[in-house]
């Protein structure tokens, strides 16, 4: 899937959720007719435009993968490292990862001669590879292995927090959603310069708590920090949707 297609799907989902929330509030008597009409005038047009652009975007064909996890949640991130390197070294990485996960601290077995920092880099690269291929549970296992080696690693905190939140949404588990949200809150506390943490936490604030102001503040902070091209696209798209147009 191209980065543009992923961003467009996120835009469609966010606008649709905004409409659904407004209609639910109207049904509960929390939003009057004029307020609902104003939101529908704004969001129905945006939704139609986003869907039109999504339909026009070229879709990359995907080969079936019988080993894929039975969870298709749509990745909102892309690898920061060169996946070509991971592909070229797939066999070696698989062996090292298996040993690193099985024996993160032990000195038994084959001599890997990897420092904890080197193991973290191997695990992060492999986790990004699994995320890119939508193997959610495999990626979570790898990020958890990173956090056993370094409990404050910014990337592992942000990515595993978001994956758990997405996983909770996918299986309709409030407990998992809350675990993911709590981890994202921890990310921005211990790694305030990790842009992804602010981006993901901003989305959660809007989706779960309808906290538009809080979400905008987090997204604006993400925009001030170094981001990948995909993160930049998502941050800009969400800010455009959430900020009122004067």
Distance between the termini: 34 Å
What radius of gyration results from the CA coordinates? Answer: 20 Å
Range of helix content: over 70%
Whole-number mean pLDDT: 75
Question: What is the quaternary state of this protein?
Answer: single chain
Number of beta-strand segments: 0
Shape: elongated
Give the biggest beta sheet.
none
Low-pLDDT residue spans: 60-92
Please count the helical segments: 11
What structural class is derived from the secondary structure elements?
A: mainly alpha
List the secondary-structure elements in sequence, H or E: HHHHHHHHHHH
How much strand?
A: under 5%
Summary keywords:
single chain; mainly alpha; 246 residues; 72% helix; 0% strand
Short description:
Helices cover 72% and strands 0% of the residues.
Describe the protein.
With 246 residues, the chain is an all-alpha fold. It is built from 11 helices and no strands. Helix 7 packs antiparallel against helix 8. The chain is elongated and about 65 Å long. It starts with a helix and ends with a helix. Mean pLDDT is 75; it is low at 60-92.
How are the SSEs placed, and which strands pair?
Elements: H1 3-27, H2 33-56, H3 83-88, H4 90-102, H5 116-132, H6 136-149, H7 154-171, H8 174-190, H9 195-209, H10 212-224, H11 229-242
């Amino acid at each position: 899937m191209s980065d543009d297609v992923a961003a467009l799907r996120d835009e469609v989902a966010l606008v649709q959720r905004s409409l659904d929330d407004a209609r639910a509030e109207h049904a509960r008597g929390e939003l009057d007719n004029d307020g609902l009409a104003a939101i529908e005038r704004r969001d129905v047009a945006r939704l139609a435009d986003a869907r039109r652009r999504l339909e026009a975007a070229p879709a990359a064909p995907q080969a079936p993968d019988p080993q894929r996890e039975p969870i298709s949640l749509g990745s909102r991130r892309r690898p920061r490292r060169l996946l070509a390197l991971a592909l070229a070294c797939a066999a070696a990485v698989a062996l090292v990862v298996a040993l690193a996960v099985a024996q993160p601290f032990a000195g038994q077995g084959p001599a890997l001669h990897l420092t904890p920092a080197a193991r973290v880099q191997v695990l992060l690269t492999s986790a990004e590879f699994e995320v890119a291929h939508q193997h959610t549970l495999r990626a979570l296992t790898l990020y958890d292995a990173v956090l056993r080696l370094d409990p404050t690693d910014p990337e592992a905190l942000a990515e595993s927090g978001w994956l758990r939140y997405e996983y909770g949404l996918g299986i309709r588990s409030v407990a998992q959603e809350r675990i993911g949200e709590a981890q994202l809150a921890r990310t921005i506390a211990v790694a305030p310069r990790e842009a992804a943490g602010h981006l993901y936490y901003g989305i959660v604030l809007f989706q779960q708590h309808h906290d538009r102001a809080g979400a905008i503040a987090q997204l604006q902070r993400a925009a001030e920090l170094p981001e990948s091209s995909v993160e930049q696209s998502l941050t800009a798209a969400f800010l455009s949707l959430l900020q009122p147009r004067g």
